[in-house]
Write a structure and sequence with these properties.
With 473 residues, this protein is α/β, with parallel strands linked by helices. The protein has three domains: 1-40; 77-278, P-loop containing nucleotide triphosphate hydrolases (Rossmann fold), CATH 3.40.50.300; 283-472, Ribosomal Protein S5, domain 2 (2-Layer Sandwich), CATH 3.30.230. 28% of the residues lie in helices and 24% in strands. The chain contains twelve helices and 21 strands. It has a nine-stranded mixed sheet. The chain has a seven-stranded mixed sheet with strand order 15-16-14-13-17-20-21. Helix 8 crosses helix 9 (371-383), helix 9 (371-383) runs parallel beside helix 11 (447-455) and helix 11 packs across helix 12.
Length: 473
């Protein structure tokens, strides 16, 4: 009998090596390699079976008729929006978020909504005892809902419980890092255990038709802990985001095989739990100061929904040899690029100033259309000139300073008009695109025009002088 040899697996990326090392050669993480049992086993950890002849697979053409899959709605508009219109039977959904952000609270509320409709909903907690979950249910006032609760970490016991009785419509496992299989000689939370337990749960969901929710921890970088193969196994990946200093929470879909990606749902954390926010734009702009320099309103698109959010900038004189550049809610590299374009193309000098950028409400912006609003906030703060309170900004900035067109211009302007904004600074519209007639639109071909508009005639003179100086040099 061959001697079983152990492998060394990186707990960050899942790379396997034959010997231990302090640094993973695949992802570069330090002290992430752990010794685990040999891979002389099957996917689920059992003995590997010899190859046997299978059965023929039925092949169909692309134009074959496909029946619409009925969805299981929760009557929570924000949650159903993120999932693409409701839960698809047999789908596997991975939910990640920082500790204490509200993942367990949200899923317990969803389980109660499903159970109240007469469907069977099971909630398995691996981190808390049943008494702790019941205390949360009392706070959420959902104790009357027929949710079946269990505290278990052994994957075999969970699967045996699921096979008994009526097939559930919803299964929640909180969290995948606490589960373990006795077929693997590895600690709970390791790559082997997470991968094996996830595949067993997903396989059950596909076979039975139950909608499965798997809760996953996140790393210090905000990514779901464990190998990326877990995200590939599931149908939908949701990130529950928010700032501990704000009561607002954002559920974002980064992968969805049954709906749109980058869709968001906005919730507000209250004593009675998470309450859906019907109008996120009004919420993000609720505490905005109209006459404050460095404040600009950005009309963005999150999935299929237009969202207006305030971008705040603070440009202050610095005593440091290398001024600070800090960004919250926006990519720091994007901020550095916009500062460089303003300095090189518009004559704005940030070299002796610290720059701080913040997206109000805890929202994280990733689309390039926010460039123009960020630039407007920076110019406003540097010059101590407040921007018009009834104006929105959106547009992408190129390295040459040109303002490039972005999509969904009509939806952005319509949302701005609905919230009482009367003017907008946008890129030049593309051919065939008609701006909204209900709002005054100012189209900018170049970033220097924005600088001149904010600073007035002096800003235009400084820009012309800077262009001549660059030409002579």
């Amino acid at each position: 009998m061959a001697k079983a040899s152990n492998n060394f697996v990186c707990q960050s990326c899942g790379a396997v090596s034959g010997k231990w090392a302090g640094r993973c050669n695949s992802c570069g993480e330090w002290n992430s390699i752990v010794e685990e049992a040999s891979k002389n086993s099957g996917i689920a950890g059992g003995p590997e079976k010899s190859h046997t002849s299978g059965i023929l697979v039925t092949l169909v053409s692309l134009d074959a008729q496909t029946d619409d899959v009925p969805r299981l709605t929760t009557d929570n508009a924000e949650f159903d929006r993120v999932t693409g219109g409701g839960l698809v039977p047999g789908s596997a959904i991975l939910v990640g978020g920082e500790p204490g952000i509200g993942k367990s609270t949200l899923l317990l509320q969803v389980a109660a909504l499903i159970a109240d409709k007469g469907h069977r909903a099971l909630y398995f907690s691996g981190e808390e005892a049943t008494a702790q979950v019941r205390l949360r249910a009392q706070r959420l006032k959902v104790t009357g809902s027929p949710v079946e609760l269990g505290a278990e970490t052994n994957i075999s016991n969970i699967l045996s419980t699921l096979e008994k009785g009526e097939t559930p419509a919803l299964v929640i496992v909180d969290s995948i890092q606490t589960l373990w299989s006795d077929r693997l000689e590895a600690a709970p939370g390791t790559v082997s255990q997470v991968r094996a337990c996830s595949q067993l749960l997903v396989r059950y969901a596909k076979r039975s038709g139950a909608a499965l929710f798997i809760v996953g921890h996140v790393t210090k970088d905000g990514q779901i802990a464990g190998p990326k193969v877990v995200e590939h196994m599931v149908d939908t990946v949701l990130y529950f985001q928010g700032d501990s200093g704000h009561q607002f929470r954002i559920l974002r879909a980064v992968k969805n095989r049954f709906g749109a990606t980058d869709e968001i749902g906005v919730f507000e954390m209250k004593n009675e739990g998470l309450v859906e926010v019907a109008n996120p734009s009004e919420m993000f702009l609720g505490d905005r100061a109209d006459d404050s320099p460095g404040s600009a309103v950005f009309a963005g698109i999150e999935g299929t929904r237009p969202v207006l959010v305030e971008i705040q900038a603070l440009v202050a004189a610095s005593s440091l040899a290398t001024p600070r550049r800090a960004s919250v809610g926006c990519d720091a590299n994007r901020l550095a690029m916009i500062i460089a374009v303003l300095s090189a193309r518009c004559g704005m000098r940030f070299g002796a100033h610290d720059v701080y950028l913040n997206v109000a409400g805890g929202l994280k912006i990733t689309e390039p259309a926010a460039d123009l609003a960020i630039a407007a906030a920076l110019i406003s703060s540097l010059a101590s000139i407040a921007l018009p309170a009834d104006r929105v900004f959106f547009g992408e900035i190129s390295l040459s300073g040109a303002v490039r067109n972005v999509g969904h211009m009509g939806a952005r302007l319509k949302e701005a008009h609905k919230l009482g904004f009367t003017s907008a600074t946008t890129p030049m519209p593309s051919d065939g695109e008609v701006p909204d007639k209900q709002i005054l639109v100012e189209n900018l071909p170049h970033l220097s025009a924005l600088t001149a508009n904010i600073l007035g005639s002096e800003g235009e003179k400084n820009h012309e002088f800077d262009q001549k100086r660059n030409k002579n040099s």
